[in-house]
Amino acid sequence: QVQLVESGGGLVQPGGSLRISCAASVGNLGYYTVGWFRQAPGKEREGISCIVFNVGATYYTDLVKGRFTISRDNAKNTVYLQMNMLKPEDTAVYYCYARHRSGIDYWGQGTQVVVVS
């Protein structure tokens, strides 16, 4: 069982930045792809970014490309999402997930990001 703990959400003004973190309670994330989904009120959960942990390959949805950066710290088993140039439409609960290469998914509890003037 893998536990994922997100942190770093909060309130920010449009144009501002936040970095959210996802710490995994697993010995080695090398067999996982780790990423972020988000869910805004009244909307479906959408995938926004992920990183293949052992090689560092990254993916971004067009909605965040050029503004968000996903990265990892191998020693800390932690994945970060640096969010710049935030917009009100980025307001959502951000969920971390880890997908094992076998296809099993693990989810965090979510962290709230609110972008408002």
Could you give a quick summary of the protein structure above?
The protein has 117 residues and is an all-beta fold.
Beta content comes to over 45%
Helix count equals 0
Q: Pick out the low-confidence regions.
A: none
Helix content: under 10%
Structural class: mainly beta
Form type? globular
Give a written overview of the molecule.
The chain has 117 residues and is mainly β. It is 0% helix and 52% strand. The chain has no helices and eleven strands. It has strands at residues 4-7, 10-12, 18-24, 32-39, 46-52, 58-60, 68-73, 78-83, 92-100, 105-107, 111-115. Strands 2, 4, 5, 6, 9, 10 and 11 form a seven-stranded mixed sheet that branches. A four-stranded antiparallel sheet has the order 1-3-8-7, with no helix packed on it. β9 (92-100) and β10 (105-107) form a beta hairpin. The relative contact order is 0.32.
Keywords for this entry:
117 residues, mainly beta, 7-stranded mixed β-sheet, globular
Element layout with pairings:
Layout: E1 4-7, E2 10-12, E3 18-24, E4 32-39, E5 46-52, E6 58-60, E7 68-73, E8 78-83, E9 92-100, E10 105-107, E11 111-115
Parallel strand pairs: 2-11
Antiparallel strand pairs: 1-3, 3-8, 4-5, 4-9, 5-6, 7-8, 9-10, 9-11
